[in-house]
Amino acid sequence: MSNRFKRAIASLGVSVFALVLALGFSMLIVALTGNDAGEAARAMWDGAFGNRAQIAGTLSKMIPLLLVALGWIVAYRAKRVNIGFEGQILAGGICATAMGLHFAGMPILIHLPLAVLAGVAGGAMWAGIAAWLWARRGVNEIISTLLLNFIAIEIVSWLVRGPLQESTKTFPRSGPIAESARWPSLLDKTSLSWDFVLAIVMVFVVAFVLNRTTFGYRLRFTGANEPAARHAGIATKTVTAIALIVSGALAGLAGELVDPRRRVHEHVRQLLGQLRLRGHRGRLVGPEQPDRVHPLGAALRLPASRRRPHGGPCRGAVGRRPHHPGTRHRLRRGSNVPARPPRE
Amino acid sequence: MAPFLRMQGITKRFPGVVANRDVDLEVDRGEIRGLLGENGAGKSTLVKILYGLFHPDEGTIEIDGKPVRIRSPRHAVDLGIGMVHQHFMLVPTMTVAENVALGLRENHSPFSRLPAVARRVRELSQRYGLDVDPDDLVEDLSVGLQQRVEILKLLYRGAELLVLDEPTAVLTPQEWHELAQTLRDLADHGKAVIFISHKLDEQLEASDWCTVLRDGAVVGTVHTDDVDKADLARMMVGRDVVLRVARESLPPGEPVIEVSSLRLESKDGRTVLDDVSFEIREREILGVAGIDGNGQRELVEVIAGVHQPSSGTIRVCGRDEPRLTPQRFHRHGGAIIPEDRHRTGVALDLTITDNLMLKDFRRLPFARRGITAVSPIREHCEHLVAEFDVRTPGTSVIMRQLSGGNQQRSVVARELCGEPTLLIAAQPTRGLDVGAMEFVYDRLLDHRKRGGATLLVSTELDEILSLSDRIAVIVGGRFVRILDPDDADDETLGLLMGGAEIAPG
């Protein structure tokens, strides 16, 4: 017990250290530009935790990142590196959106779970392609999951100009998702909804499956020593492929939570870096300039951003991290940090 | 005159453990000094300090009476200290002379001085009776000759003190005798030799003096003419050790496994197992003797269901098994102590508990409907740790933190706890000290007494001779002979393993 406790403290220490380091560097850069780092820090704090709505906003932004982190853990415990979360998020988002656009008028108790399941299935299927290639053809999953991101992005780009485009055909975006496929609000007048509870539950579900089930045991042993597991009669290929698929399913779930409702564009943009998704309530939208999309950058940032709380609520002034080149950059209330000019 | 090497009061601490405690060691020219000790007694730490890989926390080292601080292996070489590692550092596709020339610093010109190197290698080889041709490719040489190339490399670099770290693990008995002779020749030529081995016979045969380490400290230094194996074992372990195994004769029962005409081809079409046939009955141990890499691993993996044979049949407990898998092997009551415990035995980064459950995690009472039961598992593991004397602070400790001997004990505990009907024991005592070896032998004999069949694969002839009811000699994937242990001795087995044709006696 004390061993487990020590290990938990150690891993918490790493996270805290990473957070402090990241904040330190951000503040250093702010200071180097000749601005007041203290004020920037205050603005970030206000943006994230300033009042009830902002705390709720921060929490709601945490949801997809939390799920993706869980997905990473599941794959990595089986010693597989899934860097295709963007693709899996988009695949989940596409399926959930398709489900949410159709069957309007169903009771929420049926429609919403269907949309959730569609998202999970989409992410699982997208990771399943990589899992199948790995198990059958020996294709390195790092390469395949990465490249599948590009394909998913192109598919979204096509869908929002084609089959899923809103009926007015004005913008490259989907029509609004039916009310019955949206998560009900958890806290009044904030962006926090019941999917937050789902995400927290998923943390415990994943922990339970990994540590207290025979499947989790197979997965952990396979990841820790594949030949030993194979010699002991564990079907290591199957177990590993399932781990990748589950990892994708969690990302797909994140996609479902990202997409339907107004948070769509904010989250997806944060997750996908320069992938500029803009939209209105409850629509799936595509990148304005697909040629500027560079998911690799986002993929590299993802593990780091996973550990950080999010610098702001969904609307209004935002202390976004300065290294997003395509993002308009403002600090709130009397900041002397000059606003960057909008992207050309 | 001062001895060539004098180490005084050497202490080396690692977090949580003192690896060397106030160790004194003096080795003179013309002397073969044995270093003997259990796994983790501090032998390797001591020589790593000598070779500049570790720095002592306390203590002094003198070479030829002059105090030195050995900074690095390079520095050690300059001081005349050479080391033959357990795993050879040779490039197989190069000649002996090229291997010797690799990394030489005397060659400041851009042009190869290989002919000169070759000449000097030939000269050294003759002087020390090493019988190595500098133009031979290393990959064509036997393991024993490759070891001599390693020694030549040191001599070429002017080594006065040669350290051999467990040099015998890979040798046949004949090669070992030749090595012992080589070491003697080197000593007669005025070199100092430190010979590390935890095998008592070898220490008695090769060393003049033997320094015994236990728990990082020197227990004593004895002249090998004055002591016998039992004395050394007692010094090393700290208690009396029964070295001879008391194997009572038991009537064999029903056949547990019958293998006929087994053949296995590797992916590149080589035949790795050829026409292997045998059976093992209840209460029987079949020993498979052979030099490493003659198909033992493949044989074990085919029997354990990891590989499918290219042809041949396997019958387990009287039933044909056309497609044996690891699962089916376990279901038939099969258990395996793998030869390479780090590769296929344990997961170093998981806990003792996780490692102990590898065979039984699926079944009641440890799992019900796919969910594991915490307290039966904990009780089971605590029981195993106590029964098999795995020395660990607790069952939630990570496997990596245990010593090799205790890792092996965990593997033995896991594999023998379910009272298997067929046990495959592949190199079950590799790297273990006598205390742990005695323990493994006792367990194998318990298993035999209970009615279990055992396939014992080992490169240790002593082990094979004292445990087996029948002995098969494997060469190039074939069983060249199956003998009764009463008709076999070290020499016959050694010759057969080396590929000699001997008419059945």
Could you please describe the fold and organization of this structure?
With 344 residues, chain A is mostly helical. Chain A folds into 2 domains: 12-50 and 310-338, no CATH class; 65-305, no CATH class. Helix content of chain A is 62%, strand content 0%. Chain A has 12 helices and no strands. Chain A has helices spanning 2-32, 37-49, 52-77, 85-101, 108-137, 141-159, 195-212, 214-224, 226-231, 236-258, 264-272, 295-305. The longest helix of chain A is centred in the N-terminal third of the chain and has 31 residues, at 2-32. The N and C termini of chain A lie far apart (57 Å). In chain A, 48% of the residues are buried. Chain B is α/β, with parallel strands linked by helices and 505 residues long. Chain B has 3 domains: 5-237, Rossmann fold; 254-333 and 422-505, Rossmann fold (3-Layer(aba) Sandwich); 340-419, no CATH class. In chain B, strand 7 (161-165), helix 6 (173-188) and strand 8 form a beta-alpha-beta unit. The longest helix of chain B has 16 residues, at 173-188. Chain B is globular, with a radius of gyration of 25 Å. The mean pLDDT of chain B is 87.
Question: TL;DR?
Answer:
Chain A has helices at 2-32, 37-49, 52-77, 85-101, 108-137, 141-159, 195-212, 214-224, 226-231, 236-258, 264-272, 295-305. By secondary structure, chain A is mainly α. Chain B is of the alpha/beta class and 505 residues long.
